[in-house]
């Protein structure tokens, strides 16, 4: 497919067409014919969209829209220029859609509306698709996990903090980037501007200042009480009470700086680290489960005390116990913070922090060992919000604007000394009520009782991990359909390391047909090899449908059938690390029907 592009000013500045533009449309818009490979915006007369010389808030070359293999257009920001897409700062690789509004330079800068019109390709032929290559090695792929009950999985590679692009040198992105952008927009539409602005204004940068005056951004913090800000334990651990280095809390735009004078770290943070280290040496099943992989941090919350307490903003409202208890897969979430690692903003963020807002979904609520569990132990919120270094400690909030979690990390790997997201980008947050241990005298962490629970309840599950995951999935299905029983409709073993696997860029996948009926609730589990990553994606023909999931060791999805049809299920993995897997498909049947003997 191809699109003609129309640019219509929305005020704040004057635009004119550059040398490559077509004649103006009757309504004064600047129109570019379908198939144009790039559209450059700036004050330079050679630009495709030219801003007036007096609009100095716009750079000579500010940004461009470039055409992807799918025909869609995406943004490339030149340097540190400010480009906002529908009110949210954009990063290179974000796809644009019909009706999007872009603003340049700042909140008072010129803005314009983009209109895309699909047209037929010349000669009536569709644009050639990106070609799959059947090879057994390649770069690590980056896959943003989609969650149960939302849109489909998108594959990407992130230079940390930048959205939705991979292998720029070979053509940027294809339709997967467009799909990922749709996810963000779908979620963002449910959050009102007032909520976003309020949370964004409360997102402060945590900065460490060396003896030489140099500054490095460590993470994000937000007001939680008088003279108090919340963040992660691993951020607060940088506080040095001896004063050899200063830990600072900086307001957005560097309008005010506080000095950290004390730090409280949840006592469970060190207790869990000690437990994992000890059991990793002594328990082979536990050790094998996380061999070579980072484990999500636990109890990773902290509170910093700062000077100039009266200058802090109002504390953010925390979610009620009822809201936290009801939080589940598919819930819409967002955070405000500083995901700058690996981006051009990383160099300037410590001196001029500008928070970003990112959107996604909750995928599951588990314990710190990634098991479904008693709600009293389910403190880890697994989610799909894009995040990286600098975002640690950010407030994760729901559509009501109340904080439900503290963003704490994601799954990354080391690439020649730099951190990059792993094949399945799964990010984590700590349930916000962990902060009660700081503010509620009755909430006392019992290290001995907690360690006993881990030894007697959690560790045995690692010896029967696959059975436990399948049982948990069946139990969740029956909980979603009271009075019904989970029944297996398909079980098979397969591998991504055989001739039936299809290579597509940096991923491998296999397809399986799944028959569904309208109104029935289904759960699917693909269990791979311990510690290895898998993803699931459902298709109706060639079109991705609204269900996908991914994870470490296993992936699962849950959905309700819409029609009597056969869907195509793709099991995806890394091309340079193909895994064997077992696939389970379950549906919820009436208990009497499920128990009836077969004829």
UniProtKB/TrEMBL annotation:
Q: Which SUPFAM superfamilies match?
A: SMAD/FHA domain (SSF49879), Trypsin-like serine proteases (SSF50494)
Q: Which domain of life is it from?
A: Bacteria
ATP-binding as UniProt keyword: no
In Pfam terms, one family for this protein is: Trypsin_2
Q: Which segments cross the bilayer?
A: 147-166
PROSITE patterns assigned to the protein according to its UniProt record, in alphabetical order: FHA_DOMAIN (PS50006)
Keywords attached to this Swiss-Prot or TrEMBL record, sorted alphabetically, are: Membrane, Transmembrane, Transmembrane helix
Please report the stretch or stretches of sequence annotated as the FHA domain: 39-88
Residue ranges of the region described as Disordered: 1-27
The molecule here is called FHA domain-containing protein
Natural source organism: Bauldia litoralis
